Amino acid sequence: MKGIKYDYGMIGLGTMGRNLVLNMSDNGYNVAGFDKNTSQVDLLKKDTADRNIFSTSNLNEFLNTLKTPRVIMLLVPAGKIVDEVIQELKPLLTEDDLLMDCGNSHFTDTNIRIEQLEKSTIHFMGVGISGGELGARHGPSIMPGGTQKVYERVSGMLEAISAKVNGKPCVKWLGPGSAGHYVKMVHNGIEYGIMQLISEAYHLLKDAGQMNNNELHDIFSKWNTGILQSFLIEITADIFAQKDDLTNNSLIDMILDSAKQNGTGSWTSEDAMKLQVSLSVIDIAVSMRNLSTIKTERMAARQKLKGPGYKFKNDTNELVVSLEKALYFSILTTYAQGMSLLHIASEEYTYDLNLENIAGIWRGGCIIRSSLLNDLCTAYLRQPDLPNILMDENLAMKLMQTQRDTRKIIQIGLETGIPLPGIMGSISYYDSYRCGWLPANLIQAQRDYFGAHTYERTDRDGTFHTQWNHNRE
After folding, report:
1. Distance between CA atoms of 182 and 174, rounded to whole angstroms?
2. Which of 8, 169, 322, 382 could lock 162 by a disulfide, CB 3.0 to 4.6 Å apart?
3. CATH 1.20.5.320 region(s) of the chain?
4. Could you tell me the end-to-end alpha-carbon distance of the chain, in angstroms, rounded to an integer?
């Protein structure tokens, strides 16, 4: 509208950007939107005819409509496009303007951008946002980093547009620098793990239990009222009920069994390896997406490689009950791995993360929201420096109570030849974590034998090397 100065700017008017603009407008903020794609600009204009929202494909016009110092949110694809937008904006910005990257940027890129823009007295924040299209429109989980002082400039707006749980906004300032994007990366890693586990449960019910999509819908709907209550279980139930517009078959049966990955899951695995943190379920989830993409090769292998040939003949009701507990065990273990990474990364990158706050803002709006997160909040409230939630008395008891069913489900998978790598990874992580002795002494000995890499001893400090007896026949 002519003469109005707008509170906030949004660059990138795709699905997420457009819905966040509408959300901000709902909460009383005047917003200007910019996109080089005129069709996106026109779409926003169509949606906002009666709102105090301005949209344009002219960058100078966009910048001139904003209150100063400006606050501009970016929702563009991660990577070089973010840098291109920044470079285009930089000569047009003035002191104390703030750029908020709300996309899935790698945390190391965020650190570089903060450092570079500081020299120009321009502020930069990495802000993780989770919730997809509906979350952006009606309230996402928001994970901001950067300096606390700069966060306070936008805290009121972010709290207003975020999801709410028991009246509390699902947003907190998480820490300096790239803390927000790092936490969002780990969120996405956990998301990968849980989706893999749910797909394994589906595989077992479909192939071993011979259940049709109506039965699967009923099972997941019931699960969503119990210990597995979560967004991902809820939408899985909906998916099994969806009909295909083109064939009138169940849509799930018409979708190719090949799932690509966009990088955020692998980023989590890569940084965990760098920090020497075990993420077995998340690593497996990334690996299984990669394996799923070689569809032609898998179809050829199916003709050549035979499995055990065993058909499941037991009570399917018992299978459903045990699988619910196994899925709970495995999902809880996945959360444990992600939170363990955050615990280590907090110190390594001087984020000073509050894990209770993180679990709290994940309870609403985001993709991995679940009733389980209430237990995580309680665990961290009792012991803020908890290195791993498996050490919490309440959660440890729940794992011990469900491990038997988890092992039973794994046995069914082994007998029938149905792959359950995520569930297996979760029990292996649990067993390894609770094991006071692991055979890594042999690995140390082997490394010293072939490469003189040295080893540590149980009876004295220091590193040692042995001239091994290289006896060969």
Report:
1. 10
2. 169
3. 440-473
4. 89
- Span(s) in the chain for CATH 1.10.1040.10: 184-433
H-type alpha helices, 50-204: 59-64, 80-89, 107-118, 132-138, 148-161, 179-203
* CA pair distance 9, 100, nearest whole angstrom: 10
CB atoms within 10 A of CB 80: 9
Residues of the chain with CATH 3.40.50.720: 8-177
Tokens of 56: 């344009």
Q: What is the rounded CA–CA span in Å between residue 351 and residue 345?
A: 8
Q: Please report, for residues 63, 291, 298, 311, the alpha-carbon distance to residue 308 in angstroms, rounded to integers and kept in the order given.
A: 66, 21, 17, 9
Q: How far is CA 157 from CA 26, 338, 369, in A?
A: 11, 28, 22
Q: Fold for domain 8-177?
A: Rossmann fold (3.40.50)
- Quickly name the fold that domain 184-433 has: N-(1-d-carboxylethyl)-l-norvaline Dehydrogenase; domain 2 (1.10.1040)
pLDDT in tens, 107-140: 999 999 999 998 889 999 999 999 999 999 999 9
Beta strand 164-165 with 141-144 is unpaired
Structure tokens at 48: 């906002």
How many C-beta atoms lie closer than 10 Å to residue 58's C-beta? 11
Ramachandran assignment for 248, one of left (phi > 0), alpha (psi -120 to 50 degrees), beta (any other): left
Structural fold of domain 440-473:
1.20.5
User: Mean pLDDT across the stretch 405-423?
Assistant: 97
Tell me the DSSP string of 186-239.
HHHHHHHHHHHHHHHHHHIIIIIS---HHHHHHHHHHHTTTTT-BHHHHHHHHH
Q: What is the dihedral angle through the alpha carbons of 438, 443, 449, 450, rounded to the nearest 10 degrees?
A: 180
Residue 295 has a CB neighbour count (10 Å cut-off) of: 12
User: What is each CA distance from 407 to 52, 146, 190, 219, in whole angstroms?
Assistant: 58, 44, 22, 21
φ, ψ at 37 (rounded to 5°): -80, 110
In the structure, how many helices (H) and strands (E) does the chain have?
Answer: 19, 11
Radius of gyration of the CA atoms of the chain, in A: 25
- Environment class of 329 (CB within 10 Å of its CB; exposed 0-12, middle 13-18, buried 19+): buried
SS3 call for 57: coil
Flag whether the pTM goes above 0.90: yes
Q: What residues act catalytically?
A: 184, 191
Q: Considering the chain, what is the average pLDDT of its residues? A: 95
